[in-house]
Design a protein that fits this description.
Chain lengths: ~400, ~120
């Protein structure tokens, strides 16, 4: 969703959602105020952090106030420590991190109130970084505020929040669950955090999944199957049917295994929570790319696997019809790639992760999913085998979903 | 002959003084459930510890540190277990490869039985 009009005018309208939750908190919670303290720098008063600080904020923004907000953002938005700008009928309030007193002069000059954020410093810094980022001007960020009711920092966005959540995900992964909540400003629905190791709905490919038995694999990509509906592909050896999988930090259920097949093909589907046609796609835990044009792999072209252990390993296939057998039986029709064992192409837990062609427009095209790997004889050559796109789509009567 | 016999008695007495004439044999080894090593791994990431019990038919298994679930194991042919009293897994050359409590972070699906139970092997 992209909204028209000046940024801060949009924020003024969208801020209603975030502030409503704050007001609910103010009216409902009386004994669970968070620790810390705030400073009303404009008036020189110290008040308890949280409820009192947010009391009186209103949401009936006018055009004039929105323009004023735009001015404030332009003038002070790049200053360190700013977490959020809240606004109401009685004026604007800055939520800052760190030395509140240093903001006193600014507060007097601008006629604003300054409150010390109660959220952890690294989280506040991450959010501020998002605010200050030029992507902000593109409409990603709407408003952030401290929610005393849930003791969290709530951020409302104007769209799916992908860029914003990517920016703060590394901070979120270090924080207790629920400290930072991102919601869509219009729908009010929570926006997911994108992180391989602590993902949330809609789940991406390349994320870590852990079965109820503690076995770890990776999500592949999202498909629509005539038999199973919209599901996330993974490897069949990750679990049999009916086994439940959680995300990487065991806080959310990703889905239950269905359509699991072993040994030929070695494929399975996770059905449950909503997923997205995106995959984590870089050598870190947070960056992701949208999935577009799927196709069959070919030999000699570089593809990258995005499993949740190795993150990003790129190589080209030398064979597309490889068969491998073990105690589970034989798996055939595999794409095969090999290189020196000192630079492995995958590790345990990458299984099920997608293998993609990386396009110049920052999208990725699915070609396969990781099945397994090993060593050729006693030499120094290690290999990885993957199930090709066509094996997946034909076995499940499915099409790959695009972003 | 007489001298040799006396020397023999002396050795016995010295043994008694040194070690109480202990004749305790080395701990018995038990053959572990095995699978042929094929150089291929249907990989899994694990966060588990190795557990063993000589009274359990599997002898060794993994316990997930995150879920507490048990995962049965098979080992390469020739691997054995001994209990001293905690389990040690010896490779085909008799070297200690794993001990009870070892953290295991990577494994392979070895076989899925007819009940859907997965048996793992520890990644080489």
């Amino acid at each position: 969703m992209r909204m028209e009009g000046p940024m801060w005018r949009r924020l003024a309208l969208l801020g209603t959602v975030a502030l409503l939750s704050l007001q609910v908190a103010s009216a409902s919670a009386t004994s669970s105020e968070p620790g810390g303290e705030s400073v009303d720098a404009a008036y020189g008063e110290r008040t308890d952090c949280g409820l009192d600080a947010l009391d009186g904020l209103q949401t009936d923004m006018t055009g004039a106030l929105a323009n004023r907000a735009e001015d404030l953002q332009a003038k002070y938005g790049e200053l360190p420590g700013l977490v959020a700008i809240l606004f109401g009928s009685d004026g604007f309030s800055f939520v800052v991190q760190g030395d509140v007193d240093s903001w006193a002069a600014i507060a007097k000059e601008a006629g604003i109130r300054v409150y010390q954020s109660c959220v952890p410093e690294d989280l506040a810094a991450a959010v501020h970084e998002s605010v200050a980022d030029q992507n902000y001007a593109k409409g990603e960020f709407a408003i952030a505020g401290y929610n005393a009711f849930t003791d969290s920092l709530d951020v409302a966005t104007t769209n799916d929040g992908a860029r914003l959540r990517d920016r703060v995900a590394s901070a979120v992964e270090r924080l207790p669950a629920g400290v930072l909540r991102i919601s869509n400003a219009e729908s009010g629905q929570d926006v997911r955090f994108a992180g391989r190791l602590a993902d949330s709905p809609p789940f991406f490919g390349g994320g870590r999944i852990i079965s109820q038995f503690g076995d770890g694999c990776s999500t592949g990509f999202y498909i629509s199957s005539a038999t199973y509906g919209t599901t996330m592909v993974t490897a069949g050896h990750c679990a049999g049917n009916g086994v439940q999988f959680a995300n990487g930090n065991l806080t959310l259920i990703v889905g239950t295994m269905e359509g699991s097949s072993l040994p030929n093909p070695d494929l399975g589907l996770l059905d449950g929570a909503s997923c997205s046609a995106r995959s984590f796609s870089a050598g870190n835990t947070t960056s992701s790319k949208p999935i577009t044009e799927d196709a069959e792999p070919i030999t000699g072209t570089t593809y990258c696997q995005f499993g949740s252990v190795s993150y990003r390993k790129c190589a080209s296939y030398s064979s597309l019809n490889y068969q491998i057998c073990d105690a589970s039986g034989c798996t055939s029709g595999l794409a095969f790639t090999a290189r020196e064992c000192s630079s492995p192409l995958a590790a345990g837990g990458d299984s099920g992760g997608g293998v993609f062609r990386e396009y110049a427009d920052a999208t990725i095209g699915p070609r396969a999913i990781v099945v397994g790997g090993g060593q050729l004889g006693t030499g120094n050559t290690c290999f990885r085998v993957d199930h090709r796109r066509n094996t997946i789509t034909s076995f499940y009567s499915a099409v790959v979903l695009e972003y | 002959m007489f001298v040799a016999k006396r020397l023999g008695n002396l050795v016995v007495c010295m043994s008694i003084l040194a070690g109480g004439c202990s004749t305790t044999p080395p701990p018995a080894t038990l053959t572990l459930p095995a699978t042929d090593l094929v150089g291929f791994c249907r990989g899994l990431s694990l966060d588990a510890t190795l557990v063993g019990d000589p009274t359990d038919e599997r002898l060794t298994w993994l316990v997930s540190r995150s879920t507490g679930a048990r995962r049965d194991l098979v080992w390469p042919t020739g691997y054995v277990a001994r209990f001293v009293p905690e389990v040690e897994v010896l490779d085909e050359r008799g070297r200690v490869a794993f001990r009870a409590g070892d953290a295991i972070v990577e494994g392979c699906l070895a076989v899925r039985d007819s009940n859907g139970n997965d048996v793992l092997r520890i990644a080489p």
